Structures are given as structure tokens and as C-alpha cells.
């Protein structure tokens, strides 16, 4: 199946990624260079790195598998991320960059004290460990069939070690700049491989092309179309109620308070450059459902016509589909394998580098300075590199010893489930920090540490205490997306009470020593809007609500509603852009200088897809 030209293309790609990774960071001589790329990253580097970091093998392989087993509803993981990306560009990132932070825990330390920042860093390292272990597993498992096809007697364990070793090598030498530039190459490979596989799958005779695929799913006898974006609220995997509530909260955490995602935007040349990179990264995100998840739906049609759906495990769908649909002798398998390699490396190197940054800046450096020793730039880089090596060994061991390489589960969903226990309370704390709300440190620490325990217990509490009508509506078992929504609001309620309590103490002049004395004295975040802008905003929200109601009531005109939805967002953001016009500035000048209208296109396309499907 795999020919010489495939091996040649794959081998050259591997050497290119390794070479660029080692060369890109050869001049990095300070901690600022190593951890933030000297704050000189261009917009295209940020865009490529954001996309490459996010679209790991878990996405390329796992999302195709879920498209095959669940359907296009998995696109909520992509479409739902866009509003969170816009929040990063306009709310979180300007605040983080203004203070020139290396890590997001420094933001929490400034707002609430060192203890909160270190708890965040510790939890972030736990999350990176979980996600990195999963990335090594899915990468090795998806690559293994191709190597075995060559007649190589490679085991799962050996492949995990090879992937971990290679990504560790160039991250060790290069730092963030190496990670970003290799991510750009890997993004191109991911897009190329995804588009090739999507085209070859959708044009198969069993599928008949895109419009035929949509028609087949629309007219299925069982009525269970895999192109339906909104699954029932009691669906065990992706209920629409969870996708529009808990999943959005997970997106907000991932894109705004996740060290290994935000770190590349902190390294941008300027805020404008970083925002444009985020914008392009968001547009690239919108392509994923169509070259990955839709390909999984096409794979379901192919194997249904062959009568083999029952024998295909979701995480094996990618490799078996490549074997089935890709013609031999044209180098296309080499292209797809190179894209898979890029998807594997692009997430692993980012997580390894961010773990090293968190450890060095938030734990090792304060520990050394507490002893009265000044840590030089060279020593900071050395400590980061040595931690990188040790951390890589740990997660490699976990991927080999703790995960079954023959599992039949949807590993992407399982990974999201396990990671989500830690995120709701941290997200609330970040939001309160953005708005400069004061709280008692002990209550904040207690909430962050106790909510994961409550999250773990919540499925049992739901099964024992939830009324019958609730279980009929939301399922007999508590879906993890509903759990995230409930735990977030529990943490929000507790910390809101802490804010009220702290305010009363301050008003009475009885502030205790245990209060959040580290809180900055900056003014609270306030939105100053003119009366006209407020009216436009209210009309925008009202129209937004009516569009959703019309889409539900009259689905047969959903295409026209989707077009109107795009124009709704685009025109509103054009209005916001025009509001920024100075007295002597031309109409064209304000649109060249401002980027709000471009984000209107991004949000408009997202809402268009939400209404269309």
C-alpha cells in the first residue's frame, strides 16, 4: 500500500520539521527568547501555531472517528470555540499583554496572591499531563497501522517513545520560536492531508459527492441524520443543551486561560499583530468540521454500504479509511501521513514547552530567589530544559502504562471529560480577576480545590437525587457537559457570596488580614457605551433571539435565515468599527486600521453554520 514516493515525502517532511525546529531557536539566549520568542512573533506564526497547537492528532483522528460514530454534531467543538476566541482577542489578551506576563498564573498572583497563582500552575500541569498522555496515545495508535503495513515490527510502546523523543529534542533546543515555526509547517501539512482525505472520501461512489451525502443523511429511514448539529438534550454524548452551555465554558477556559494556548499570543510583536493572528487562526478553525468531521460522516456512508460499520472502532476509522480510499503510487498517503505527523508533533511540543515555562517561572524561580539567589537568564533556560526532559519521561511512561492501546472508546470525548473536572472554578476566578473583584484568599483556594471533588461526585448525586422528569429531559446519566455547567454555577455562587462578604467587611472598616491583599488598585472594568450604541446592541440581541426562534420553527427556510444571520453579525461589527472613526479619518482609513469588522465576518460565518445545520 505504501510506496517509495510516500516514504520519501514523509521522510523529507520529518527532517524539515526537525531541522526548522532546531535552527529557529539557535540564537535564543535569554528566558524572554526561550519562553516567549523574544515577543517578536509575526501574525502568521501566531495563527499557524494556534491552529497547530489546537488541532492535534486527537482532532485529526478523534474527530473523524466521532463524525463516523456520532455525526456532525461534533462540530460544536469547533464552531463553539469562535466566541471564546473573540473574547481572547478583545478582553483577556489586552490585559495579559499590558502587564507583560510570562504565565497566566502571574495574572492571578497580581489579583489574588501567590497561593492562587501556584494552585493554577499546579492544576495546569495536571491538565497538560492528561492531555499530553492522550496525545501520545492517539498519535501512536493512529500511526501504527501504516508502519506495520510497511512490514516493520514496531510496537505501540516503541512508537510512543519515538514520538516523545523527537518532539522533545527540537523543543529542548529551540524554545517557543521553534515550536511556533514548526507549528506553521505542520498546520500546512494538516490542512493538506485533511483536504485530500476529505475529497477522496466524499467523492467515493458510495457517497456520491457533498450534496448527495447531505441528501442521503437528510432522507435516512431511521430519521437519525448524522448531519444534524443539534442532538436531543438526553443524548449520552453530545446533547445540544450541553453543547451550548457547558461546552462553551470549556471553550472559554481553553482559549483564554490555558497557558499553552495563550502563550503564543503573548509572544506577538504587538497587540494588533497578535489579534490578527488570532483572527486567522479562528478562520482556520472553521475549516475543521468540513475536512475532518464531515469525512467521518462520509466514512459512515462508505462502510454502511459495505456492511462493516459494526467492526470499525472510532479511533481506528482514520487509518482504515486511508487504506480504503487513498490510491497507491501518487504520494498521497505520504501527504496524509505527513499531516498526521504534524498533528501529533504540533500539540505535543506546545504542551511540553508550556509545562517547562510554568515550572520554571512559577515554581523553580521563586524557590531559588527565596534562598536569596538571583537566577540568571541562562539558569532559567537550563532549568526549563531539564524539567522538559523529566516531564517528557513521565508522560511517556503514563501513555505506555496507563492506557489500553486497543480501547474501543471515543478517546477525544473521554479526554474532554477527564480534563473538565478542574476547569469550572478556575474560569470563575479568572473572570472575577478581569473585573477586579475582591475575595478572601481562603475561600478562593477552598473553592478551586473542592470543586473537582464535587465534580467527581456529581454523577452519583444526579443518579440518586435528580427527579424523574429531569432524567427524562437530560438523560438517565449526567452528561459531562451538563456537569461542567452545574459546577461552574456552583463556583460562581460561592465566589459571588465571597465578593459580597468582602465588600461588607470593607464597608465596615473591618478588613481581615486573610483577605486578598494582593488585589491590584486598578479601576474596575467598565463598558462606556453611548445611548445610541446601547439601543443598537439591544436590537442586535433581540434580532439574534428571533433568528434562533425562526430557525427552530421554520427549518425549511433555514438557508435564508443562515444568510441573514451572517449579515446580522457582519453589519453590527461594521457599525462598531465605524464608531471608532476619528474626526479627520476617512471611512476607508478606519476599516484599514481597525479589525472589529473582520471579527464580524468570523462570528457571522460561525452563526451562519449554526443556523444552516
TrEMBL record:
Transmembrane domains' residue ranges: 6-25, 79-96, 117-138, 150-173, 180-202, 237-255, 276-303, 323-345, 386-403, 415-434, 441-460, 480-501, 535-554, 560-576, 597-612
Q: Which GO terms describe its molecular function?
A: D-glucose:sodium symporter activity
Q: Read off the Pfam families from this record.
A: SSF
**Keyword Transmembrane tagged:** yes
UniProt keywords (A-Z) are:
Membrane, Transmembrane, Transmembrane helix
Location of the protein in the cell:
Membrane
Recorded hits in InterPro entries, A to Z, give:
Na/Glc_symporter_sf, Na/solute_symporter, Na/solute_symporter_CS
Task: State the annotated membrane topology for this chain.
Answer: Multi-pass membrane protein
Q: Which GO terms describe its cellular component?
A: plasma membrane
Membership in a protein family: Belongs to the sodium:solute symporter (SSF) (TC 2.A.21) family.
What name has this protein been given in UniProt? Transporter
- Phylogenetic classification of the source organism: Bacteria, Pseudomonadati, Spirochaetota, Spirochaetia, Leptospirales
